[in-house]
Amino acid sequence: MPGGAIRESGPRGLLLQAQGYRVRQDLPRFYNSPTTFLTDIGTVGTMSRVSIPKFLFFIAVSCTSQAFAHSWGPAARATGAPGDDSKACTSCHTGTLNSGSGSVKIILQSGAVYIPGVRQRVTVQVSDPAKQRWGFEMAARLNSKPETAQAGEFTPVDSQTQVICEDNGPRPCTTGVTFIQHTTAGTRNGTQGGVSFQFDWTPPATNAGPVTLYVAGNAANGDNNLTNDNIYTSSVQLNPVTPVAPVVPTGGVMSAATLVPGSVPPNSWVTVYGSNLGATTRSWNETDFANGALPMSLDGVSVVLTVFGAPRLAYVGYVSPTQVNFLLPVDALQGNIQVQVRNSAGISAPIQIGTTANSPQLLTLDGKYALGVHADGSLLGKTGLVAGAASAPAQPGETLTFYCTGCGATTPATISGLVPTKSSVNTLPVVTVGGAAATVTSASTITGSPGLYQVNVQVPAATANGDQPVVIRLGTTNSVSTLITVQR
């Protein structure tokens, strides 16, 4: 697999992850931005759809209260937060707090913020290289009164977590603060090194001011005793952010592949530019996907499509204050579609775009050179094209893999809204290299990369050295010309 890390926020980032590059999504860059770059920090083997939301109130994460004799979860207030037991789980488990070689972390999706009333996924990671059973307890508190002021509401998303009240009973809670904690199934006895717990948290419906997060976790040895377990704590602070009604100007909706207003095909990425679109900046990640379904909202930002008077939601892959990327559904009807961006403060005025059956476009590394790989998975391009990433020119006669959007219908049919598997296109595109027809051996969607296709192309044997134009055509529609470097 190729090496390197790519700072990406668009569909090219998903593709590169699937090809083994680790994608850095901490900058709001789009996939064909000239400022995109790679850094050589190693490879990964699976696609990560992702970044993380944070909010400013106390969240406390903890352990089981009596070894894992209480494997079903601890008593309330075992978190170490203000008003809770300051010893956290060490009140029951022997040892010194934070003395092991592990940690507990709260992972959120959108930075150190919360958006009032907008639900977000929370991940708690408990790790220790020497342990094999795991537990936690979390509480959310307002910073103004952390001992007793509950902040928002927890919701389990699987069988590994549960919510309890201050009186140790189940919801609904009549008084006091609430906690989310592990279940017996969530302890996963025998799992070496660490685990993650995921659940949803809905913040207060209005701006509740700053809050602080307290976290503690139990890394246990799994012997059902109170000894030789490690307890960890940490804290983080977050602030509320309040959205403003979004504004999208005329001409602000365009193909993400060309960044030029015009018609777009189904199952392709579209970019919206404007102001006040979102209160946070992030791409989708694995916590946004439920049962293989693509997310229709990120941090309260959604895209409403209206066709023949009927609204539907698009699939949102990236949000920021000035840019939103969304995937046009596979079954989008050919014709005109109205596009609006919605957040919790309002909805933008409709902008009309056209849809066309076929409109293939090659992805690029820098807005100029086509994104592709050699048969061994190494990056296509002249030496030094991308800083920190090894690349090599094409050779006449070799077969390259290019990546594109808008390559049409597939068999089996791609299902709108679901993470795709590999499906061959119904009609192979035509590709020219240096003006000469190239042999297209196959074309298909890419497993795990929504809205993207790969096309395998043999470079004509007579292709000359140097930069050569590459164009892909489907039906009567040509892509924008891109370049590859050829060296015999």
Entry summary:
The protein is mainly β and 488 residues long. 2% of the residues lie in helices and 39% in strands. It contains 2 helices and 39 strands.
The count of helical stretches stands at 2
| CA-based gyration radius | 25 Å
Binned strand content: 35-45%
Number of domains: 3
For this structure, what is the CATH class of the largest domain?
Answer: Mainly Beta
Class from secondary-structure proportions: mainly beta
Q: How many strand units? A: 39
- Uncertain segments are 1-69
> Might you state the CATH topology name of the largest domain?
Immunoglobulin-like
Helix share, percent: under 10%
Mean pLDDT value:
84
* Alpha carbon gap, first and last residue: 24 Å
The biggest beta sheet reads: 9 strands, mixed
Global shape:
globular
Write the layout of secondary structure elements.
Layout: E1 5-7, H1 11-18, E2 22-24, E3 38-39, E4 53-54, E5 58-59, E6 103-107, E7 111-114, E8 120-128, E9 133-138, E10 140-142, E11 153-156, E12 161-165, E13 178-182, H2 184-187, E14 193-202, E15 211-220, E16 230-240, E17 253-255, E18 269-273, E19 282-283, E20 302-307, E21 310-313, E22 315-319, E23 323-327, E24 335-343, E25 346-347, E26 351-355, E27 361-362, E28 372-373, E29 379-380, E30 391-392, E31 399-405, E32 410-411, E33 424-425, E34 430-433, E35 436-446, E36 449-458, E37 466-474, E38 477-478, E39 482-486
